[in-house]
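Usage example:
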Amino acid sequence: MPTASPSVADRTEAELISIIQTHTSYSADCVVVGIGDDAAVVEPARNRLEVLTVDALVEGIHFDRRFTPPEAIGHRALAVNLSDLAAMGAEPRHALLSLALPATLPLEEFDRLLASFGQLARRYRLPLIGGNLTRTPGPLVVDVTVSGTVRRRRALLRSGARPGDEVYVSGRVGSAAAGLALLRAGETDQTLTSCVERYLWPEPRVRLGLLLGRNNAATACMDLSDGLADAATHVSRSSGVGMIIDAAAIPIEAAATARLARDDRDPLTAALTAGDDYELLFTVRPRLRNRLRTVLRQTDTTITRIGVCTTGPGVLLNRGDRSDPMPSGFTHFHR
Amino acid sequence: MPTASPSVADRTEAELISIIQTHTSYSADCVVVGIGDDAAVVEPARNRLEVLTVDALVEGIHFDRRFTPPEAIGHRALAVNLSDLAAMGAEPRHALLSLALPATLPLEEFDRLLASFGQLARRYRLPLIGGNLTRTPGPLVVDVTVSGTVRRRRALLRSGARPGDEVYVSGRVGSAAAGLALLRAGETDQTLTSCVERYLWPEPRVRLGLLLGRNNAATACMDLSDGLADAATHVSRSSGVGMIIDAAAIPIEAAATARLARDDRDPLTAALTAGDDYELLFTVRPRLRNRLRTVLRQTDTTITRIGVCTTGPGVLLNRGDRSDPMPSGFTHFHR
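Running the assembly step on the lines above writes:
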C-alpha cells in the first residue's frame, strides 16, 4: 500500500521553521538577532529613511493552486512587496514571513514555495529575519512584510506630479492578465508562453525604482499591482493633477491583445484594468529628461511615454477620435 | 422590510481604509509617509537597534467569533505583538496591519475591531503606518507587524540564562485558559470574570520588559504566548541550561484552578501548557537582584520566583514529592 505523502500537519512548528531556514539562510550584516527569538533585532541603516510595506496573497483570491505551482506562489509573495519598495525608490533590506497553512498542504509544496521565496530573496540579498506560522481552517495565506531604505528626499511618492510632467510606464501591460486567462482555461498556446511567465513570475522593478529615486528623475511613482488605470488615477488624485493617456502608446504585447480580445471585451480596457502587472508608472518633468536618460543608461528595462499630466481634473484616455474617462481600476471589495 | 446590515463587501477598499484611518489617526514624529502610498516611510530611531515581529490571528484557530467580540480580536491582534516586543525589552514604535476579510464580515464588526486596535495603539503612542486589505474566501485573518527600538546591548534574548540564575514569571498563568473554557461552554460564572477578562483582553507587559532591559536586570526573557512550559523549554534550550521549576510556586488564581480542574485534567498541567497568557518568563542572576528591585519600584506588575537554572539538561517540574519532566508545550502543527 502506498504511503500518503506527508502534509504540513505531520510536522511540528519547529520542523517547519527549520525547512524555512534551510531555504532562507542568507545572512546579512544588519541582522543582530534573526529567526528564533520573540522578535528580530536589526541594525538600522545609517543616514537613510526606512521604507516598510506588507502584502498578503490569499489562495482563491490572488492565486489558484490548481494552476499556480508553489514556486510561483513563493516568488510572487515576495515580488509584490519588492514592487512596492521599487515604487518608492527604496533598496530592499530585510523581510518577515507570516504563513497561515491549511493542514492538508503537502509538505512538498510547502518546501517548494519556500525554496522559491528564498531564491528571490537571495537575488536581492534579503535576509528573512522572522515571521509567524499558524494553522488555518481556510485557504493558504502568505503575508510578507518587507523593509527597505531610501535616502532623505529621494523617496518616490504618488503626490509629486505637476501639470506638464510626462507619464511613463515600464515594461508591458496586460501580459499577466492574458497569461492568467490562458492558465484558467487550461490552454497551451505556445505563442502566449511569455504572458504565462509574466503572470507566474512577475519581476519587480527594483533597480529601475532605485535609479529613478537616486537620480531624482521622477516626480511621482506608483506600481501597477492593481492595474495601470488604477495607478494613473491614484497618482492623479494624490498629486492633484489630471492626465491624458494616449491609448495608442500603451505598450501591450500583440499576443496579449489577441488573447484578451477572445474574452469578448475590449482588450485595451482589459489590459488597463487588469492587476498583476508589477510595472512602474512614473512622471518626469520634461526639463529634467536628461536625468531619465542617465537612468536608462544603467538599466535594460524598457520604458514608454504614455501621456502627460494636465491641470485636470481626472484621467482621460485619448483614443485618437475621442477622449473617454479612464476605465475604473481594480478594487478588492466593491465588486 | 428591514434592510440587511451592510458587510465589508458593500464598501470599496478606499472606504474601508478610511474607516481604519479614523480609528488609528495617532500621528508620530517618526512618520514621514503614512498610509496611502505604495509603502510607508519612517525616520529610524537614533542610536537604537530596531526590533521587528509579526503575528497572525486566524478565526477558528486563535479566536471564535461566536464568543469573542470584535473589540477583543482587534485588541489581541496588537497585544500579542506588543508582548513579543516586551519580551525583547523593546519600546513599541509603529505598526502595520494586514487584514484578510470574509465578504460576510459585518461592517459594524469591522469598525469595532479597528476601534479597539486603535485604542490600544494610542495607549502605546503607536502610529499605524500602513498595511494591506484583501478579501478571503476563508476565515478572518488579522496579521500585525510591529516595530520597536532597543538600546544596543539591552535587548533581552532567550539565550542569556546561566546555571544559578533564578527564574521568574510575571502576573498569573492559566487564567486565560480558564476564561476560554468558560466562554466555550457558555457559562456565566461570576467568580471567573477575571479569567474571561484575561483571555479577552491580554495586557502586554511592555513596561516590565522595557524596565528589565534598561536596567540590565534579566539575563534571558521570553513571553508566554504558547504557555509557561513552552517558554521555559525554549529559554532552557537557547541558553544551554536546565531548569527546576517549583510547582508550588507557579502563580495560579484559585478561580482558574477550580475551572481547569473541572475539565478532568490536572489543573497545573493545564495552566502550564495553555497558551494565551501574555506574561513574561525571565531569568535573573542572584547577585544582580538589586537591579530587579529597581525595576519593581517602577511597576505595579507582580512577579513570582518559580525556579532556578541548572547545568541541565532539560526542564524539571518539582512537585515536592517528585520531579517530572516539564509537560510539553503548545505546538500549532503536531496535534
